[in-house]
Amino acid sequence: MALGVSITKAGEAALKRLRQWPGERRVAVGLSGGVDSSLTAALLVEAGWEVEGLTLWLMSGKGACCAEGLVDATGICEQLGIPHYILDIRETFQQDIVKRLVDGYQQGITPLPCSQCNRSVKFEPMLEWALSKRRISQVATGHYARIRYGGKGRRHQLLRGLDIHKDQSYFLYDLTQEVLGRTIFPLGELTKPDTRLEASRHSLRTAKKPESQDLCLVDHYGSMSAFLGTYLPPRQGEIVLKDGTVVGKHNGIEHFTIGQRKGLGVAWREALHVIKLDPARNHVVVAPRSEAGRQEATVGAVNWISIDPPTDPIDLQVQVRYRGTPVTARLTPCAATDDDRCRQRPHRCHLVFKTEQFSIAPGQAAVFYNGEQVLGGGLIQRDLETSQG
């Protein structure tokens, strides 16, 4: 512990919760090499848990979740006196995340890889490894979210983190009940400043480490454009208005997203926003903001995480961007499509927003909330674009 650095109230409360934990106190901590996961491990050790560190090797080369992260995660485990293991999951990450991401951008959507990565690349593989290799039944991570654990026959509930500026529940909607029941989020009631102070109190080497990007691929390649350029060659096309008027050129629709205004390279009498990406014609369709709003969306591959799938329309709050503000909407369940059944993700729904929304991008997540509770979420589908030219 650092001399002269006092424990924060939030850190003290987190320690109390961990010390009063009703179940098993053995845990594998997912360590990325950042300050959040480092403090997660430190608090668990301080609370008397038997802790083992586990780092997922996702990509080769530089990046917060790669070479630098592996080095810092190893150093944290040495500092805390706990064992450290590395799970090579590069092949899975390449197929489940990178390939899907590239395919999505080619198809004119803006994929959200983080929720898919959390479910299929991070949490489930970590839990499987911990149980099969170390006989540890639970994992902890540095996510800013909370879990309200259900009793016998009751569902676990995913809740927002208390720090509204760092809340990461948006990326966790796709987790299963089994995963929730075996996961611990020690930082769920801390703010980021609390985390920094607590990391300093523990003299962690990562206490002042800069924030990484929300998307690890951006950290790894330097920018999303650089990442896409590695996989997709330039493909010149036209930027057009809804009536087909050509107003500019582009080098690939994958470099644009719905709602984008800056970086279009278009001179026009008023600001234009991207309203459609047309892979068949290789067009980026733009329009003034007054024509870019939408009041409806269809959402597929829905995962109802905290409640049973509703059978009747319900009113709730919807967040369509990670940093977006939740808005009120009426959700109506839809019949499953054959394609959804093939993917074993049958739940679909139709959303009607109370007020017109801007930048609703196919491929991004629409996450459903009731106050602080995450009800579920899914991926915005392309059918929204049928009326966009």
Could you give the topology of this structure?
Elements: H1 9-19, E1 26-30, H2 35-46, E2 50-57, H3 67-80, E3 84-88, H4 90-106, H5 113-134, E4 139-140, E5 145-148, E6 157-160, H6 177-181, E7 183-184, H7 192-201, H8 216-221, H9 224-231, E8 237-240, E9 246-250, E10 272-278, E11 283-288, E12 294-304, E13 314-319, E14 327-334, H10 338-342, E15 348-357, E16 365-370, E17 373-380
Parallel strand pairs: 1-2, 1-4, 2-3, 4-7, 8-11
Antiparallel strand pairs: 5-6, 6-17, 8-9, 10-11, 12-15, 12-17, 13-14, 13-16, 14-15, 16-17
Helix pairs in contact: 2-3, 2-7, 4-5
What keyword list fits this structure?
389 residues, alpha/beta, Rossmann fold, SH3 type barrels, Elongation Factor Tu (Ef-tu), domain 3, 3 domains, six-stranded antiparallel β-barrel, five-stranded parallel β-sheet, 10 helices, globular, disordered C terminus
Description:
The structure is a single chain. It is built from ten helices and 17 strands. It is α/β, with parallel strands linked by helices. The protein folds into three domains: 213 residues, 3-Layer(aba) Sandwich (Rossmann fold); 58 residues, Adenine nucleotide alpha hydrolases-like domains (SH3 type barrels, Roll), CATH 2.30.30; 94 residues, Translation factors (Elongation Factor Tu (Ef-tu), domain 3, Beta Barrel). The strands form three sheets. A six-stranded antiparallel barrel has the order 12-15-14-13-16-17. The protein is globular and about 65 Å long. The C terminus is likely disordered.
